[in-house]
UniProtKB/TrEMBL annotation:
Any GO BP annotation: SRP-dependent cotranslational protein targeting to membrane
Name of the featured protein: Signal recognition particle 54 kDa protein
Coiled-coil region(s): none
Binding residues for GTP: 99-106, 179-183, 237-240
InterPro entries in the record: AAA+_ATPase (IPR003593), P-loop_NTPase (IPR027417), Signal_recog_part_SRP54_M_sf (IPR036891), Signal_recog_particl_SRP54_hlx (IPR013822), Signal_recog_particle_SRP54_M (IPR004125), SRP/SRP_N (IPR036225), SRP54 (IPR022941), SRP54_GTPase_dom (IPR000897)
Top-rank EC class of the record's enzyme: hydrolase
Domain named Signal recognition particle SRP54 helical bundle: residues: 1-82
Enzyme Commission number, as recorded: 3.6.5.4
Gene3D superfamilies for the chain: P-loop containing nucleotide triphosphate hydrolases, Signal recognition particle SRP54, nucleotide-binding domain, Signal recognition particle, SRP54 subunit, M-domain
Compartments where located: Cytoplasm
Naturally occurring in which organism (per UniProt): Halalkalicoccus jeotgali (strain DSM 18796 / CECT 7217 / JCM 14584 / KCTC 4019 / B3)
Catalytic activity annotation: GTP + H2O = GDP + phosphate + H(+)
Subunit structure comment from the entry: Part of the signal recognition particle protein translocation system, which is composed of SRP and FtsY. Archaeal SRP consists of a 7S RNA molecule of 300 nucleotides and two protein subunits: SRP54 and SRP19.
Protein's gene: srp54
Length: 439
């Protein structure tokens, strides 16, 4: 599937004008991917129309090939389709979760609390589900694992009363996350209950929690919850499974909201803030976004320095010099963190990156800047053979770059670590999936 989009794009290479058939071929492949990811047909059609109209009517900016032009339009329209991330100020607030039973509300409540606690806030989860047996224990255990405050009452029967008391009991917390009951199907009773809880806790925002596998059912759910409590954001759960979550876009569209969080597992830290790039790459299949973004970035780059013409797959062959590291750092500035880039390389995605030491790929923006200065002060020979750099050179480089010896050593250390890491990948790139050795 991903290959056919790539193939179609390849066929456009070298063309200076696109015909209607060319555009149609690209649109067809995108449609295929999106429909397979459960994106609603009418949304797919809207997107297709915009792409077609723009690709045929807009003039490619100077220096842009027809292929890059269409890619840029495709990418922009996909970003418009999935939308921005729901704004979540890091301040005191009450968030209520809504959704059907099993959608992942309780798990998401604990995960979000974990997330807020990592941001330095003090969250509390209030569990109001009196409907599902074991709901109290489940929520309590998850909150223990997330190490966040929890309020619930296994003996109480009135969810509204639990919610009210929960807000009082956890008054010291900054972020109140109110978990609610679900039902197997949308019922008036469920809607009435959540409305009443909403009146009791007065949430700043309510999020609709949806299973990634949701298809057309998303529309009706979204509409009902939107009418009763108002939905400001969506959390998509179970993205670690095969479902890509495209159905949730229907809910986003229906509620005129955005996506806030993605759930990617059963543990409390299996949560990500929604981010359009990553989600689009999920919808289309990993390899494709890499090609899209690379192309788009290239098309939009004002100067096309040779240095920037960098392909992550190059890392999988040959030696890794400081020249390579620098290219990779520049590319990272444009494309996102290296671990995400590595995820886009077919065959290297998935959980492999998780198995590497945390700091193996950690180069923060600030370090990147300092490393740039250091590398500016190195000779070509030093960039090619960093292992040969000795103490006197370190001193000279530190002086010349206006940094210090420690920074130079840190850079050399970082290079060594990346080199080691990439060596492991090189083995795998050649089809040597020896997991034992990786560990
Ligand atoms: P609720 O009924 O809406 O509160 O849903 P729960 O939070 O109880 O989740 C229902 C089931 O889905 C539980 O078994 C969870 O462990 C599981 N679950 C929730 N979120 C995720 C996720 O992101 N990934 C996976 N694999 N399972 C999840
Ligand atoms: Mg629950």
């Amino acid at each position: 599937l991903g290959t056919s989009l790539r193939g179609t794009l390849e066929e456009l290479r070298g063309k200076s004008r696109l015909t209607e058939e060319d555009v149609q071929a690209v649109v067809k492949e995108i449609q295929r991917s999106l429909l397979q990811a459960d994106v609603d047909v009418s949304l797919v059609m809207e997107l297709s129309d915009s792409i077609k109209t723009r690709a045929l009517e807009e003039e490619p900016p100077g220096g842009t090939t027809a292929r890059d032009h269409v890619l840029r339009i495709v990418y922009e329209e996909l970003v418009a389709l999935v939308g921005d991330s729901t704004e979540l100020p890091l301040e005191e607030q009450t968030i209520m979760l809504a959704g059907l039973q099993g959608s992942g509300k309780t798990t998401t409540a604990a995960k979000m609390a974990w997330w807020f606690s990592k941001k330095g806030l003090r969250p509390a989860v209030i569990q109001t589900d009196t409907f599902r047996p074991g709901a109290y224990d489940q929520a309590k255990q998850m909150c223990e694992r997330a190490e966040v405050e929890f309020y619930g009452d296994p003996d109480a029967e009135d969810p509204v009363e639990i919610a009210r008391r929960g807000m009082e009991e956890t008054a010291d917390a900054d972020v109140h996350i109110v978990d609610t009951a679900g039902r197997h199907a949308l019922e008036d009773e469920l809607i009435k209950e959540i409305e009443a809880i909403g009146e009791a806790v007065e949430p700043d925002r309510s999020l609709l929690v949806l299973d990634a596998a949701i298809g057309q059912g998303a529309k009706e759910q979204a509409r009902r919850f939107e009418e009763s409590i108002g939905i400001q954001g969506v959390a998509i759960t179970k993205l670690d499974g095969t479902a890509k979550g495209g159905g949730a876009l229907t809910a986003v569209n229906e509620t005129d909201s955005t996506i806030a969080f993605l759930g990617t597992g059963e543990e409390v830290d299996d949560i990500e803030r929604f981010e359009p790039n990553g989600f689009i790459s999920r919808l289309l299949g990993m390899g494709d976004l890499k090609q899209l973004t690379e192309r788009v970035e290239r098309a939009m780059a004002e100067t096309q320095e040779e240095e920037e013409d960098w392909d992550p797959e190059d890392l999988l062959s040959g030696t890794f010099t400081l020249h390579d590291m620098r290219k990779q750092m520049n590319a990272m500035n444009r494309m996102g963190p290296l671990d995400q880039i590595m995820d886009m390389i077919p065959g290297l995605g998935g959980g492999l990156m998780d198995q590497l030491p945390d700091d193996a790929m950690d180069v923060t923006q600030d370090r990147l800047r300092r490393f740039e200065f250091v590398m500016d002060s190195m000779t070509d020979a030093e960039l090619e053979h960093p292992r040969a750099i000795g103490q006197s050179q370190i001193e000279r480089i530190a002086r010349g770059s206006g940094t210090d010896e420690e920074t130079v050593r840190e850079l050399l250390q970082q290079h060594k670590m990346m080199e080691r890491t990439l060596k492991q990948f090189q083995g795998m790139g050649q089809g040597n999936m020896d997991m034992e050795r990786m560990m």
